[in-house]
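Most newcomers find our protein records easier to grasp once they have seen one. The structure tokens are whole numbers drawn from a learned vocabulary of backbone shapes. The record below serves as our worked example for the rest of this section.
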Amino acid sequence: MRDFYDGITFRMNVVAKKASLGLQHGLKRYDVTPEQWSVLNVVNHRAPISQRHVAELVEKDAPTVNRIMDVLVRKNLIVKIVDEKDRRVTLLSLSMEGKQKVQMIRNVVEMTCVQFYKGIPDAELGVFFDILMRIENNLE
């Protein structure tokens, strides 16, 4: 049984690396990393949103998200606005350029996912997702 578990763990790591590299390759022409994309995607769906909330949703620590945000601000993809209700909070939204880039990237991500999941029925992907969530819960 030990070899079986070792094989699954090894294969999960290999697939995760290949998926990350595949996504990275697709995003390269937009000068965006997978980590930056995860932040852009969350801001796109939840704006205006606090940096702390972004960090929770992308499951990264605050300093890492802060560095990513600084890069995205320099690239003119994200804008920071002070919250009117609580001036200690900075809210994040996409800039006009960020909105345009997110739309282009969304297409690349969707094409990449189609390639990743080619030949696998949605029902099987649903079971796979459920199993992944249970494994993640076991790790917490």
